[in-house]
Amino acid sequence: MEYIFPNDFIFGTSTAAPQIETAFEHDWQGVTSKDGFVFERTTDHELRFKEDAEIISSLAPHYRMGLMWSKLQRGPMENLHQATVNEYKFFLDDLKNRGVKIMMVLHHFTNPNWFSKLDSWEKESNIRLFVDYAKKIIDTFGSYVNHWNTFNEPNVYASYGWITGFFPPFKINPVKAAIAVRNMGKAHDIVYDYIKEKFPDQPVGISHNAVVFSAENVLGWFPAKLSD
After folding, report:
1. Which of 3.20.20.80, 3.60.15.10, 2.40.160.100, 3.30.70.120 would CATH assign to domain 12-227?
2. Could you tell me the mean pLDDT of each successive run of 10 residues in the chain, 228 residues long?
3. What is the DSSP letter of 164?
4. What element of type H or E holds 189?
């Protein structure tokens, strides 16, 4: 069966800064996987901006990306690190000149160590810290952006961080998972309003991870429904 994509369908490529840049003082730095890989050096994206821009522009006209919070803001409420701002602007200028449209992700699973030490999304008082960072990113890089994504898969982040304990902060506490989701939701609302105030025509949303669970037997029926 042949499927025709609508004219406004967005084809693009996607990365996350912590997954392609060398780790810098964030809560995934030094994490060791089951196969022994230590999360530290990745693909040296920060050393290959021009090369990566060429690859990105050759594949699709849109690019979903993020910036490394821990590298840009090195303490609570601090100004953005200017050298890092300049590096990202060099990359974004190159993409813009190549005609690539940007979807900017503001939070993709990682937090600066200083934010984690304050209990990250478990504390409602920390919402203002993320909002401060987000506003500075919007003010600094907004002219490069076509679409905004405030949070990448907050359901996955909370589930793996506070229910299974697979992601930082490696906790098993469903109550704190719910609190984290609530606080990210509140942060999204504030940042959404700020983006719409600055750039009324730019779409703003959250990336959702939708998974369907099927029970193998009657005992699995309720957990499957709960997981859905």
Report:
1. 3.20.20.80
2. 91 97 97 87 96 98 98 99 99 99 99 98 99 99 98 96 96 96 99 99 94 81 70
3. S
4. helix 174-198
